[in-house]
Amino acid sequence: MKEPLFSIRMRAARGDRHISGAERLAGADCLDGLAAGMVKRALGHPKGLPDSISLTIEEIDLSRLMRIGLPDIRTVGVDSVAQGRNAALAGLLRAGISEQAARSAMQALAGGAAPNGESMRGAMLVDALDGRRLEFDAARGVRVSRMDLEERAAAVLARELQAIGLNNTHVQEALVLAAKVLHAPGVLAELCWSDDPDYTAGYVAAPCLGYVRFPLLKPRGEDRGGRAFFLAPGTDVTGLYRFLEKQAVLVDRVGRMLPDERWRACP
Ligand code: PML
Ligand code: MG
Q1: 134 contacts 125 by C-beta, under 8 angstroms
Q2: 103-130 pLDDT tens trace
Q3: Quick one: 157 exposed, middle or buried, by C-beta within 10 A (0-12, 13-18, 19+)?
Q4: Residue spans of the chain under pLDDT 70
Q5: Which reaction does it catalyse (predicted)?
Q6: Cα of 205 to ligand 1 centre, how many Å?
Q7: Which of 143, 196, 203 to mutate to test the pocket of ligand 1 (most atoms within 8 A of CB)?
């Protein structure tokens, strides 16, 4: 990536309804192509046509750039949404999240975690012990921003994902986002399932688990989904927002592709 480096991000919405978002870091020479690609993506999204698309481009401070690696990735095979959610719950419990917090976050994602019953624009923050919601605005949540894959790591990742049939934008972008979230101060685990109606997969990520995918966490056609970040009790929420939204992060190493597994359901 040529210096100086810029953060380029896109948000598309129709009224209150979040349609699409994207985040990249790039040199000046790539910005026009990325901007065009982001606008095209916003206009072709399965959630429908947005009535506003905003693009923001800002130079980042290279002296503060943080470099991190991707988590290991594995897929847990499941035959139904109920089995998928049960396995995701088991993952969260393994990561030290209380059953109350894990279940209430899953319920919120399933029912639409924003106050109007739709998906939030960003992620919710959940106390990992008592399940309390901690984000400052329950419609917006926290937006994980200013992160990307370095070019060589992107090429390696594409090749390795290709070999296991998973080289798509959902997986690539979710891995980069999860990598940043796992480096955030106070975050113990993340739960995500897509809010795109035609994408049913999701994941649990935690330092002790890596990135664990579940191909079925919601029924096809459902557009309620999103992300929950589980926080150690007492986490500095303002500092966490600052890290997730403002700290520029470049991912320069991929994790291991681990064999697929099946997990026993929770009792
Ligand atoms: C999204 O792109 O809407 C989130 C996708 C999360 C799951 C990605 C994967 O298949 O691992
Ligand atoms: Mg989406």
Answers
A1: yes
A2: 999 999 999 999 999 999 999 999 999 9
A3: buried
A4: 264-267
A5: heptanedioate + ATP + CoA = 6-carboxyhexanoyl-CoA + AMP + diphosphate
A6: 12
A7: 203
